[in-house]
Specification:
Helix content: over 70%
Distance between the termini: 34 Å
Radius of gyration: 23 Å
Number of helices: 24
Order of helices and strands: HHHHHHHHHHHHHHHEEHHHHHHHHH
Largest sheet: 2 strands, antiparallel
Strand content: under 5%
Structural class: mainly alpha
Strand order of the largest sheet: 1-2
Length: about 575
């Protein structure tokens, strides 16, 4: 069977999900089971995969989904614990004292605070934490979700202390070693040095959007959620956007080029957050006129869900700002302490896991639940328990927080079980076993990517990032997207005589921008802001900044490949 036909079959589950969720506005709880079924049928008819093997891959996906759901639950329990302790209202009170302008709040929390959390934890954690905070400040749930999904892009390449590069590119190790031994003049000698080089180029690919994206998104939000439906209302805050971008970009670039891929987003977010909060308090670059979403009774019906935005403009201070923010401070501190290998905690926590090896007897079809290393348990659930003591919560209030959090898990559980099972089939379809894959076909994602590459030719630098984005859309992870497609990107670059480093860097950048549209993140954010069933409307809004991001990255990658850096290996 030709690659073109295989690619069409592989694309069908994605097309089904898109049509049902975006076109027909089906919730993910209904769309993803059907998309999974289409994927199973494709595996049976085109790849000739055994039914038992497809069942094993689906079970592997379910186990993986449990880990994601633990993170979602952890984010929800933090939100509800702070809600019933009075901490959230205290944070609202303090944030309004920084600035009552929703545009400024969106940059501080959605852009900068989320970048710090991404640098420490990754894997969709920032949107799941930042969106409820915006919601509590009075943002429409739909706007809060869109803001946090879109801004969870440029920090992602260096998320979870560099995981998308350090772990995501591990399958390139033999290719890098071969290049070092056979090609004179390559500017890397080891895999570690290659990762550092990729980190350098990734920052440059992201750099224009670090400045463009906040301005675009504020205009986007005021256009679709503002009382006047005007792009200009958002663009009026351009000075504060540039101020924030500089505050983030300087440490981001500095750590990427001078230290390595582990800390650019973490340090950029942390340093930038302190700078822009201090600047906002002093009115530096803040628009003279305060902007808001308008009265809640005039909001469109689809802006809100189970959890309403705050209707109060007068918040009470139930405790000190330090005590109210202490849970978030503890989350950031614990994430850092548990993600730096040299401190020793990372290795021990990561070793504590429930392992499901060779599911249904199929070698390599394995999954595990890292029950202590997942941020849903440490720090989220741990900090939620500590908050009961820190904030002096009555037992009844604490019980109510946990009961409501469990109740919110039904819809994301259904959606994620089928979505991740689909991903598992995608990844496992290219198994190198003649008994399981008699045609010796590449995996479904690789079949799609090869077909696209055949059409693109030497224009590949314009499109390479979209393959990374496709991988993130399918798998829900920049890291997994890189694991899936890094070797393919290297191969395309070799065939077309393009700089390998630039094309691989475009893959990494594309996997980051794909976080805007990936089903995992959208389902998770919908769960924590009470919008389960609204995944389609959110995807319809985030796809536009995704396309813009890919165009900008493609232009930069093309210039680097053909104009500025054609001499690179």
């Amino acid at each position: 069977m030709s690659i073109g036909v295989l690619a069409l079959v592989a694309a069908l589950p994605i097309a089904v999900a898109l049509v049902l969720m975006v076109g027909l506005r089906w919730p993910a709880t209904k769309a993803m089971p059907l998309a999974w079924l289409v994927c199973v049928l494709g595996g049976l008819t085109a790849w000739n995969l055994p039914v038992s093997y497809l069942a094993a891959l689906s079970l592997q996906g379910v186990v993986t989904a449990v880990g994601i759901l633990i993170i979602v639950f952890g984010a929800i329990i933090i939100l509800y614990t702070l809600k019933y302790s009075g901490g959230m209202e205290t944070i609202q009170y303090g944030m309004q004292n920084v600035s009552a302008d929703r545009r400024v709040q969106a940059i501080i929390i959605g852009y900068m605070f989320a970048a710090f959390i991404e640098g420490a934890a990754g894997f969709g954690t920032p949107a799941a934490l930042a969106a409820p905070l915006l919601l509590s400040l009075g943002f429409p749930p739909l706007a809060a979700a869109v803001i946090c999904l879109v801004f969870n892009s440029f920090p992602v390449s260096f998320g979870a202390v560099g995981t998308p590069i350090i772990l995501g590119l591990k399958f390139l190790n033999p290719l890098v070693t071969e290049a070092v031994n056979t090609v004179p003049g390559v500017n890397f000698a080891t895999m570690g040095e290659f990762n550092a080089v990729i980190g350098h180029w990734v920052t440059l690919l992201h750099l224009p959007m670090i400045f463009i994206l906040p301005v675009f998104m504020l205009g986007f939000i005021t256009r679709f959620f503002g009382p006047k439906r005007s792009w200009a209302d958002g663009f009026k805050a351009w000075k504060f956007c540039i101020f924030a971008a500089v505050a983030f970009a300087v440490p981001y670039l500095g750590f990427a080029w001078l230290v390595g891929p582990e800390f650019p987003s973490l340090i950029g977010g942390l340093v930038g957050l302190g700078i822009i909060v201090a600047g906002a308090k002093k009115g530096f670059c803040v628009p003279k006129e305060t902007w808001d979403f308008g009265p809640m009774e005039k909001w469109d019906a689809d802006w809100t869900g189970e959890i309403k935005g705050s209707t109060s403009c007068e918040f009470k201070c139930h405790m000190s700002q330090f005590k109210a923010w202490l849970p978030y401070m503890l989350i950031g501190l614990i994430l850092v302490l548990t993600r730096i290998p040299e401190l020793g905690l990372k290795g021990w926590l990561a070793s504590q896991k429930i392992l499901f090896a060779d599911i249904m007897g199929f070698t390599g079809v394995s999954a595990s639940i890292d029950y202590l290393y997942l941020p849903g348990t440490i720090p989220f659930m741990l900090v939620a328990l500590l908050t009961i003591l820190i904030h002096g919560m009555p037992g009844e209030a604490a019980k109510k927080a946990w009961v409501e959090s469990f109740a919110k898990m039904k819809n994301p559980t259904i959606a994620l079980f089928f979505a991740v099972a689909l991903v598992s089939i995608f990844r496992g379809s290219g198994v190198a076993d003649a008994a399981l894959n008699p045609g010796g076909y590449p995996s479904m994602p690789l079949a799609m990517a090869q077909a696209v590459a055949g059409f693109a030719g030497n224009a590949w630098p314009m499109f390479a990032s979209y393959v990374g984005g496709l991988g993130a859309f399918i798998t829900g992870s920049n890291t997994v997207s890189d694991l899936l497609f890094a070797e393919f990107q290297w191969g395309v670059a070799a065939q077309l005589d393009l700089p390998r480093q630039i094309i691989v860097a475009a893959q990494v950048a594309g996997g980051a921008m794909g976080n805007m549209i990936c089903i995992h993140n959208i389902v998770a954010v919908c769960a924590v802001v009470g919008l389960s069933g609204m995944e389609g409307p959110i995807l319809r809004r985030t796809v536009w900044p995704f396309l813009l991001y890919g165009i900008v990255v493609g232009i930069v990658a093309s210039l680097m490949s053909f104009v500025f850096l054609p001499h690179l290996y």
